[in-house]
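Ops channel
N.P.: pipeline sanity check, posting one input/output pair.
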């Protein structure tokens, strides 16, 4: 299984079809004035989860440049310290030069999904000025990983 937490940890049913599960502990300093996790922190967590996903695909080795083209997050329930989030990551859509990555944030304390997000990542040349198509081997690795977890991205 591709994940970044203990292999003995039980995966909630809500995350069973996600290729990568990133474990993220909430830190006290990430709370805002309303005593819940600051909205900006969700985007930082998504970045860490996205890197774990790209690493699972062998696409984060320094030889590829990707750029974040778009991201959004829907907050469903407030999260407070202490808590640990499990962030499910999977490919929603595989395009020619981009992928749409889907995130589901699951709270260990609440035993519930607390946020959903997505991001569009574009593959670029080394100068970061020209889009490049995903090569066939990358597409195959991504689809194979996703299919292991019963998920088939839109292509």
């Amino acid at each position: 299984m591709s994940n970044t937490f203990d292999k003995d940890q039980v995966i909630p049913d809500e995350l069973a079809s996600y290729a990568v599960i990133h474990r993220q502990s909430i830190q006290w300093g990430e709370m805002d004035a309303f005593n819940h996790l600051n909205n900006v922190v969700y985007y930082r967590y998504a970045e860490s989860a996205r890197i774990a996903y790209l690493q699972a695909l062998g696409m984060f080795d320094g030889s590829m440049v990707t750029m974040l083209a778009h991201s959004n997050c829907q907050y469903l329930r407030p999260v407070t310290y202490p808590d640990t989030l499990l962030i499910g990551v999977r490919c929603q859509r595989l395009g020619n030069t981009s992928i749409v990555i889907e995130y589901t944030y699951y709270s260990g304390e609440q035993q519930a999904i607390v946020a959903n997000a997505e991001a569009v990542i574009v593959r670029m040349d080394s100068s970061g000025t020209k889009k490049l198509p995903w090569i066939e081997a990358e597409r195959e690795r991504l689809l194979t990983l996703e299919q292991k977890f019963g998920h088939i991205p839109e292509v």
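N.P.: looks fine end to end. Residues 39-56 form the longest helix (18 residues).
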